[in-house]
Amino acid sequence: MNPLIEVDRIGKSYGSVVALREVSTVVNAGEVTCVLGDNGAGKSTLIKILAGVHQHDTGRLRLDGQDVRFASPREALDRGIATVHQDLAVVPLMSVWRNFFLGSEPTVGAGPLRRLDRRTGRETARRAIADMGIDLRDVEQPVGTLSGGERQCVAIARAVHFGAKVLILDEPTAALGVKQSGVVLRYLAQARDRGLGVVLITHNPHHAYPVGNRFLVLTRGASLGSFEKADITLAELTRQMAGGEELEALEHELRGVSG
Ligand SMILES: Nc1ncnc2c1ncn2[C@@H]1O[C@H](COP(=O)(O)OP(=O)(O)O)[C@@H](O)[C@H]1O
Ligand SMILES: [Mg+2]
């Protein structure tokens, strides 16, 4: 069986800045691929290529075994790739259920009599959110009243409801506390268990390791490898993230200064 997505030696430059160099990994249905790396490592560049925001210069991108190159985010979405950006495209004063649909609300009637079907919309959003086990008191409340974690959860429920095959989350836990991070990771795992291929971008190996099936570690645009879980421990992943040898050298240096 083909992977859902195959990233094959992809490279991307912005003018003279090489943002990605020969990066490879896969995303399988029902699995989580984690992309880890420090600031500037190239994480966002990689997901922007998957999401149709940018195009790669070299290498290949395959979806269900076919070479693809998305001309726009709309095209990626039409092929089943849903991306939840860190800043979340929500309208804070609009209700949760309207944000859930954002432009694809159900309607009744035809022609000039066509109008928003509020009752169906509210009920569909409520059920989809509840189906994910998310406990929201009221889908009429403005989305701006939700916590950051709850907003991420609604965005995940939305992608599942609209039939996404691949769900990409860019640093969903970056601004969250420990407890809320746990909640978001739990819903991410639910999307995985429903058969979606999930791409989780994070710089926290402790968030990645429990939910991840494979780990792509980037450093200054280069890949340190795409590891299956069985082939890497949390300790080793943490060491790679921290820049391994660099950190050890720093430790030596600092010890030298104090002692
Ligand atoms: N639109 C852009 N134009 C020029 N350089 C960019 C652009 N976007 C990112 N870069 C550069 O590419 C590198 C990788 O950035 P990015 O993919 O955002 O990393 P990350 O998400 O891991 O922090 C950085 O050196 C960054 O400055
Ligand atoms: Mg980024």
From TrEMBL:
InterPro entries: AAA+_ATPase, ABC_carbohydrate_import_ATPase, ABC_transporter-like_ATP-bd, ABC_transporter-like_CS, P-loop_NTPase. Coiled coil: none annotated. Pfam families: ABC_tran. It comes from the Bacteria. GO terms for molecular function: ATP binding; ATP hydrolysis activity. Residues 5-245 form the ABC transporter domain. SMART domains: AAA. Keywords: ATP-binding, Nucleotide-binding. This is Sugar ABC transporter ATP-binding protein.
